[in-house]
Structure formats: structure tokens, C-alpha cells
Predict the 3D structure of the following.
Amino acid sequence: MNANVREMRLDEVGIVIEYFHGATPEYLETLGVDPTRLPERAVWHEQFAAEFANPIESRPRLMVMWELDGRPVGFSSADKITIGVQANMHLHVVEPDLRRQGVGETCVRKTARLYFDALRVQRLFCEPNAFNVAPNRTLQRAGFAYVKTHNTVPAALNFHQPVTRWILERPADV
């Protein structure tokens, strides 16, 4: 598997916008996403453009593209960033046929290293919906440690839900 992970470019944010806007209500529920909280496509693109105009240290999030054999297959974002301390990451495989195939695990490992370097953080958290088995297994396989399960609103697009909090500490060699 030839997986590549890199910072997302502004001209690629459409993959994020279409991933959410093109999803079924049932799939969004699995993600814990409230469809009424999705910004309109054009508004969302403008928000991304405003973010990308700033240096990484000033952005509310860092977006990462996942590629397999040169084609986009997923993405990650980090938010709740405290440079040099911690960030929360999110993960999404956009091609349904590639889910549960190990792509997420490979990309999560590489993405974590990118976040450790770019944000200089000491720890990464991830809080997927507790009932969404795939990302929880992916995080465990990628080396994240279970912290707890609790109720919260993990991000702006989400509704109040049970989530499983995972943590990955910065390795000594990074």
C-alpha cells in the first residue's frame, strides 16, 4: 500500500465539503454529525480560504490529505490546537470501498507524525463517536491509548454524543 500523507492545499478542500454534503443522513449520524450544522458549500469554502491565508500557527485547524497511489482517499484535521502542547485530530476515509482495509491505520500513523512535527505538540487526542466502531479500532491499532468514554460535542459539526477519547503521546524520536 503506497499511502501518502501531506498538508492539504486550499484547492483540495472540496473533498471535505463534498464528503459531508454528499453523505447520507444515516452516515452522518454514524459520524455524530448534525446535518443542520453544515455550512453552505460556498460559505464553507470561504471559511477555509480565510484559514489557509494564515500561517499554520494562527489557524484554527490544520488539514491533511490522505492519498493512495496518488489519488485522494481521505483526510484528517487537527483542531483545538495549543502549539507545542496538544491538538485534537479527526479522521475520515472518503472512499467507502477502502474503509476497513487498513488505509486508515496507515494514514493515521503518518498523520500523527505530521501533526507532531508541524504543530510541535506533545500529545494528540481523538474523540470519535463511541458507537462508530471503525475509527475506534483504527486508533487503537495505530497506537493510541484509550482514555475514557464520555458525553460531549467533539466539534462544531457534531451533536452531543458519547465519544471515546484516545491519546497518542509524542514519541521520543519525533
